[in-house]
Amino acid sequence: MNPGLAFDAVTCLRGGRILFEGLxxxxxxxxxxxxxxxxxxxxxxxxxxxxxxxxxxxxxxTGEGTRALLSETAALDAERTLAGALxxxxxxxxxxxxxxxxxxxxxxxxxxxxxxxxLSTGQRRRAGFARVLASGAPIWLLDEPGNGxxxxxxxxxxxxIAAHRAGGGIVLVATHQPIALPDAQEIAL
Length: 189
Ligand SMILES: Nc1ncnc2c1ncn2[C@@H]1O[C@H](COP(=O)(O)OP(=O)(O)OP(=O)(O)O)[C@@H](O)[C@H]1O
Prior knowledge:
The chain contains 5 helices and 8 strands. The protein is an alpha/beta fold. The chain has a single domain (30-52, 67-188), classed as Rossmann fold (3-Layer(aba) Sandwich). The two termini are 31 Å apart. The structure holds adenosine-5'-triphosphate (ATP). It comes from Sphingomonas trueperi.
């Protein structure tokens, strides 16, 4: 199976307004898409459509391969320990053993036993990214992945994305912040 992600003439309606219309792009293994545009233009909506959480008004999304989403909400149970919350999701994919390495990768191994609700903003963001890493999904959908990250963590994120692409993974990033994403396809809304 060759992963891929393509938008074919996708139109997005939200809150009674057309946010974008007839949007097409295609990402192949190793590719990155960078979604850019001002506040409220529809970047998060585009990522949600790519994740299958929001239906487009028109057009279609195609592509093979599982998709992992990092969005504003980390989607981790606040009352569980960090390792427990990540283990819940990874376990659903039969990848419970991947949690330890993911926590190491994002520099949170020391906080594995801390409840998610006690994490700082940046730590929570990194925890959300650890969930993506642990998923093993070939397609990463990252909505503002750099939010709240310090310089070291941003460099970690960029390095992990580069390694993912080098291994044939695909990434779609929506962001305001500058992020190193060499040769990314710009998707300007
Ligand atoms: N659940 C919803 N119901 C109705 N309208 C919504 C909903 N979520 C978002 N919108 C509207 O859709 C528009 C686009 O929102 P979206 O979050 O996709 O933009 P964005 O480009 O990601 O913004 P930002 O840069 O501020 O994160 C906004 O006008 C917003 O109010």
